[in-house]
Write a structure and sequence with these properties.
heterodimer, A: about 120 residues, mainly beta, five-stranded mixed sheet, four-stranded antiparallel sheet, B: about 110 residues, seven-stranded mixed sheet, about 0% helix
Amino acid sequence: DAKTTQPPSMDCAEGRAANLPCNHSTISGNEYVYWYRQIHSQGPQYIIHGLKNNETNEMASLIITEDRKSSTLILPHATLRDTAVYYCIVRSPQISSGSARQLTFGSGTQLTVLP
Amino acid sequence: DAGVTQSPTHLIKTRGQQVTLRCSPKSGHDTVSWYQQALGQGPQFIFQYYEEEERQRGNFPDRFSGHQFPNYSSELNVNALLLGDSALYLCASSLFRREYNEQFFGPGTRLTVL
């Protein structure tokens, strides 16, 4: 799986959009970009994933550049409860031989939403 | 719909002892993965179970073993505990046949080895 690079920390004002960048310059054509977050002392929470098109769900939007070498997770109106470590993960889809791919976590970005 | 559940929440053991952690997957899921998260680090993959077989394994010694039951629940066993085994142990469940296989995590078991 491709390696990802994220800033170690970011701050965001409550109510403003939080834009979390991720570089994955060695991504392969069939690899998806996943985002998870981990609120302190809890298990990671799936946020969103995408292949090459921009994606949006009730939690966030994912913008993937045309060359797929980087992406941005957008939390449109950050709240204090969005304070967490955000992980960007690049991962191949299912292996047809009978083994699902595990998640390889890096260090992530600590997002702090300030009141 | 219950999510992923893990037990116990916290556990304290001494060096050399053995421990068993338990996980019940999200309803409808058939695959269970286990991760170890040391303080200040991201989770590290231990192994994955599907159809009661270990399908993939990360870089962990044989002291770490597991089992999956017919109801898809799973156990993680660690023998001969070391101080370095102190960590948050996370269980994640997923549906094997989904191409993008998003994983849903439990709250974890905090293991302290003294």
